[in-house]
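Changelog-adjacent note: as of this version, every example in the card shows the full chain rather than a window. The one below runs 254 residues end to end.
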Amino acid sequence: MAYQIAPASLGQTPRRRHPVFGPGRFRVGDAVMVALYLLLMVAGGASLIMALPGFAGAFRNEEAALFAVNLIAYMVLFTGAMIMAFKTLKNSARTFRYNPWAKWFLVPGTWFGSLMVTAILLTLMGQAVKSENQLAIEGMTREIPFTTMFFVAVVMGPLVEEYIFRHLLIGKLSRKLNVWVCVVISIILFAGIHFVGSGSFEITSAIPYVTLGAVISVAYVLSGRSMAYSYVLHFFNNAVALSVSYTLLPLLQS
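Full-length structure tokens:
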């Protein structure tokens, strides 16, 4: 972990500014995790669980079985991400010691800002078409208890994605490439992963993911590559979205 040192006037002690949390070198374990993520979430390897004899029949419907598949996949990835990045996650939580009020205020502030940007873009470009990922989540909310869904979609999912798309694709990749080039790569891949396997793509349905990816990626860099801060932002976004899906969405549909 390095510190930015502010210049001092003559006779004064230099002020220590916000730390930069070094992500470290790319390790063999990181490569294993990337391979696992690609296998389970991109190549569709997790869906092979459905082919196990008696697996699908153990659940009351397809949505419940699909959720069980996602639960298993995310438990594997979450465990691996915690093993590989727990020290980084813990150390980077120290970012909240610097301008804590501003940082905590920016958690709902950046969420609301990204929501407004998304709304403006959709107003200019046309009504959003829901992605297959969003439709699948909404289908699960009718079958899966809130607390169980919260554990997967709010606790585990964001941690795995922050490890892959921020800690690795920005933090560690920026050792080789310009950090803002890494940010662009992260945003594109973060948005694209939500359409893998859907068989279709609508630019308007990608806007929320692009906006969220941009906000979290920039916050990650400006907070000194703090995986803890980007995780908190992602956690808050998913918590709000899930709460709306379980409370307001059923009322609107009825």
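Structural remarks: The CA atoms of residues 179 and 221 lie 8 Å apart.
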